[in-house]
Amino acid sequence: MLIPSILSVSVLTIMAPTAVSPALAAIRDAFPQITATQAKLVLTLPTLVMMPMGLFSARLTAKIDKKKLLLTGMALFLVFGVAGGLVNDFRLLLLTRLLFGVGLGIMTPLSTSLIFDFAPEPERRSKLLGIQGSFNQFGGLLFMSLSGVLASMSWRYSFLCYAFVIVSIILTSLFMPSIPPMAPKKKSADGTAAPKQKMSKKILILAFFAMMIFACYFVINTDLALYMDVLGIGDAKECGYALSLMRIPAILAGILLAWIMRNLKDWTMPFATVIMASGYLIISFAQSYGLLLVGCLVVGLGGGFALPPISLYLPRIVTPRQRTLGVAIIMSVAQLGQFISPLYTDLFVSGMSEGDLRMRFVVSAITTVVIGFLVLAFTYTLPKKPLEEK
Questions:
Q1: Which of 50, 5, 15 has the alpha carbon at shortest distance from 169?
Q2: Per residue in 216-241, pLDDT tens?
Q3: Phi, psi of 261 (to 5 degrees)
């Protein structure tokens, strides 16, 4: 039951910030004094908070038992997640989202670092990270649908989807062993403290790659609705269906990831990014809704292969003592990919005509492949085996 405990946390971390997005229009109507931009803070504020909080959480693991820290994060997640549907003042709603982001920030790096703690074997680790990726996608599919149903009754009910964390709290409390901080390094023979091992700066390069992969992957979320509207091949409902459908092959990709990595090894990232780029090229040339769905499915498959393996390079860059912080750095920087996604494509294409929108997907395809092969080149600078403590 340990693995279901860890994976139940993974379901929560990805879906959490945007789970109430189906209720966003109703929230704006409930608070007529706010603008549309202010309403979007309900979605973006937790993400902004979880970045620095994730780094702080990783630091805390040097002093606090990981299990206790995780349960603290989940308690904040539950209380302030559900509380968002109980307030009558928009400022209080933003406060609950701020504190909700604190809990989410504590949980997010731990959800991945726990896999490194309990699965030291590379084969088992890659299998679990792939399954974790599948659970991430499944969580998004499940909770977006659930939130939409609840929001159709009342925007307040959509916040009840955060109560699922109760399942994770029970599983973690019952089945996850304590993970106390690592013992301090032993002193040398002359009685002086052993020098602290510095984290390799290569972690920042890896974090940059993660950010760009996320930025390319989220282009479909930011541009697909407008693209379909300009082409006249679907409305908001059909766009939502397409975005939900692309999670299905992403779930399958997570299940197959360990097998793919065993056979392709460091070539997994180029393979994954070529698939994702192919999907974007199909979308860019689509003239019908059916062909656009095919492109979305291919993008989902490539994204499912491309997103989880980034963390698997960590043991070749950082020592076991540094891994939780390493995970936090990568995931915090990767989250920026969601924000820079439209800004990056604007560097090349700023218009909103049909040709410009098509070109946005072409830019994403080219960038994705370039990043994939840069990751491959980067792996040749890394040791073949995981680092150990000196």
A1: 5
A2: 888 887 677 778 878 888 765 677 67
A3: -70, -35
User: What pTM was computed for the model?
Assistant: 0.74
3-state secondary structure of 277: helix
Cα–Cα distance, 71 to 382 (Å, whole number): 35
Contacts of 272 (CB under 8 A, 6+ apart): 302, 303, 305, 306, 309, 372
Domains in the chain: ranges and CATH:
2-175 (1.20.1250.20), 202-379 (1.20.1250.20)
Distance CA 226, CA 239 (A): 9
Q: Would you say 144 and 16 are in contact if contact means Cβ atoms under 8 Å apart?
A: no
For residue 68, how far is the Cα from the chain centroid?
23
CA 167 – CA 173 distance, rounded (Å): 10
Q: For 365-387, what is each residue's pLDDT tens digit?
A: 999 999 999 999 999 998 888 77
The dihedral sign for the CA sequence 344, 347, 350, 353 = negative
CA distance 323 to 129: 15
Q: What distance in Å separates the CA atoms of residue 343 and residue 349, rounded to the nearest whole number?
A: 10
Supply the DSSP string of 137-159, one letter for each residue.
Answer: HHHHHHHHHHHHHHHHH-TTGGG
